[in-house]
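Figure S7 source data.
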Amino acid sequence: MTRQPIKFAYWVPNVSGGLVISQIPQRTSWDFDYNRKLAQTAERVGFEYALTQIRFTAGYGADNQHESVTFSQALLGATERLKVIAALLPGPWNPTLAAKQIATISHLSSARIAVNIVSGWFRGEFKAIGEPWLDHEERYLRSEEFIRCLQGIWQEESFTFAGDFYRYRDYSLKPKPLQPLPEIFQGGSSRAARDMAARVSDWYFTNGNTLEGVRQQVVDIQQKAVENQHSVRIGVNGFVIARDSEQEAHQVLRQIVEQANPDAVKGFQHEVKNAGSASPEGEGNWANSTLEDLVQYNDGFKTNLIGTPRQIAERIIELHQAGVDLLLLGFLHCQEEVEYFGREVIPLVRELERQLQPELSHG
Ligand SMILES: Cc1cc2nc3c(=O)[nH]c(=O)nc-3n(C[C@H](O)[C@H](O)[C@H](O)COP(=O)(O)O)c2cc1C
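Tokens for the predicted flavin mononucleotide complex:
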């Protein structure tokens, strides 16, 4: 079967402190001027998507956070081809407001807006904003209803729904989003997350992992998706440290870890026990993460995109062959490193893809 070329997304630094819980000097900034330039660079060098993050309260070095939907809209206004994925957290958002906001942004951006439905891991944050904290299974039941409602509101002339969390009667949204409809991503790796992806989502986003760990999830999801007659694609997080020599890249990793803020990492370790570890199976995001893994918020070191451009390109091909359709990438100095990745790594990936599948066109 012919595979599409692998796609690249980057984490938008709309949150301060970058993507590592470390005191290492970073040239990444969370302000809009920096992010506008970064988005323009990313689309120029071959990134197809950007992912904004949603956070309502400070923590672990992320003291300031711009809101995800608003920030995504601004990035869309500053770019021409980039698709921007806005994170939505059911609870603070309900499907009515989300469907309406995103439909309008679809019109403002020539259909380049997508959404990432996140289910919540930060109990302290929910407490701070007066949102009830549901248990792990219920959070996913709510997220699935949220996604079904977005799809119904966007697709049906008159939408009626009676769920445990949301209710609609003959609701007609106008205008609908432009076609193609906004893609629906979801973040999370537990069994509940995989089951939801295999039923309703367009994309499954998971934390960084080893090749084998990724492969197991892909097999599980794709088997279930076939049973459900649903089609879903897979995106994996990875933190890239690409340098001219392998030694230099590993030295940067060591510096990030050595300069980690131990109290902040331990605080994060405590809080993320409400994610995968709190699921009935005790597996999912951060369930098996070491302190070193947690220095990167989404286990991005585990994906091992650390080394020379060629080593990284070869690992990307292995991930693609294991069923990964998109890599979501984080960087230390985003602006310079997105540029370097686009110049040195993406062309190598495309070359290797063509060698494996000569019929692939990257037009
Ligand atoms: C790629 C990715 C992006 C995420 N972005 C956010 C975010 O912006 N805000 C948030 O509160 N949680 C975010 N999450 C957390 C998830 O939505 C989810 O709550 C968490 O991963 C626990 O999932 P699990 O228990 O199913 O493994 C993200 C997760 C992933 C994998």
